[in-house]
Amino acid sequence: MVAAEETTRLEVSVQRAVEERIRRTRILFPRSRKKQRRPCLSSSSSSQKKTTGFEYGAQEDETLFEVRRKAKFREEYEGSCARDAADAMSSRAEHQEPTSAQEPRAPLPGKALSLATPSPSSVSSNQANGSKALARVAQPAATKHEFSASVIRRQASRWPRPEWHAPWKLYRVVSGHMGWVRSICFDPANSWFVTGSADRTIKVWDLASGGLKLTLTGHIEQVTGLAVSNRHPYMFSCGLDKQVKCWDLEYNKVIRHYHGHLSGVYALKVHPTLDVLMTGGRDCTCRVWDMRTKAQVHVLTGHDNTVCSILTQGTDPQVITGSHDSQVKLWDLAAAKTMATLTHHKKGVRCLAQHPKEYSFASASSDNIKKFALPSGKFMHNMLQHQRSIVNAMAVNDDGVMATGADNGQLWLWDWNSGNRFQEMETQAQPGSLDSENGIFAMSFDVTGTRLLTCEADKTIKFYKEDLEATPETHPVRFKPPTNIRRY
């Protein structure tokens, strides 16, 4: 009996010591929410035995080791993060330029999160108070977005700012042709203008009143091109009948014919300083004529489709042609050779326009309107907010206003320097015409650049001018620099 009592007393004391150790471990290192699966002792019977205090104490020792290992790893990781943050702040302070209004900020090293190892005194105090011995000291001083890409200084947009232009409005409609109006040209004195139509006639109009002055006949097909010489009293016309005619404006009759095209002629241009005439047609060629002798000087070949637009320069013997094969070619007029071939367009180029003062030009297609520099033909930029319509006509005045007209009746006005579209209009078919006949085939500014005339499919000629009552306050510039700038 005495031995049994001693054994029982020894087991009770050992059990109490184990429970006291377990209680201290729970106070110092509270267990996580995730319950760990305790190992079970297998026995011969179907019932499972309970874990003893010694086995549970061994498991708590493993948990204590794992907690200390994770705490050490966390302390090293947060210390490295704090060092990286301090280095970033110091580099930012070095690259930031000091100003008079704001001094450069000193780098603020962040404080790392630390996990203190409990000392014997802290263990005793925690045992007395029943509180946790492990605690996080402080949060880092640097915020989440302190070390982001904002350290790099953002550059200003290089896209030019658009100038303010007054909106344009319709103020007159002139009718008289019996077919589509296909071409227009102004008198160098800015007193009259001429138009060519699908009714095979050429009409001379008074610019001030819009009245009809004269009707010239002679073509047997549509009149597609007109040009008035600024050095001679001559007017030139071309049409789908393969003919190129020279009209004497003093006698109002044809004095010369230029034969050579194998098909319809679509474009015509007179050189401003030389006595030469350029024509382009469906035979994929641009022919250069001597104005006086009617001799064919050059035949510029290289296009694979109809040549429908021609430009010339007075300061340089250079010719620019646009074709339905989506190419724009720059030619040396003296050598009759190609200087450059621009293949930026993916659709046929129907019209070209040159700035009266700047050394640049624009080409229009259904995919986009592009601006190029002369004489090299370097691409500058695209016109913004293009609606991808078939552009048939284009004109530019001295103030940098470019107008474009499409076959669906859309009329757009652009700022030449920035390519910003500041106005959009849609022409209305006149009474007596079909609703679908609202296309624009030709347009031109007068010599002063204050009036815009459009030749349309409803057999009319429309006059536009600036709205003098408009101000930058009533019609502000709405412009946003493009983010997806195309390099071609």
From TrEMBL:
WD repeats lie at residues 174-215, 216-257, 258-299, 300-341, 383-424. PROSITE patterns: WD_REPEATS_1, WD_REPEATS_2, WD_REPEATS_REGION. Keywords: Repeat, WD repeat. It comes from the Eukaryota. This is Protein pleiotropic regulatory locus. The keyword Repeat applies. PANTHER family: PLEIOTROPIC REGULATOR 1, WD40 REPEAT PROTEINPRL1/PRL2-RELATED. Residues 25-38 have a biased composition (Basic residues). Residues 25-61, 76-136 are annotated as: Disordered. It comes from Chloropicon roscoffensis. The keyword Repeat applies.
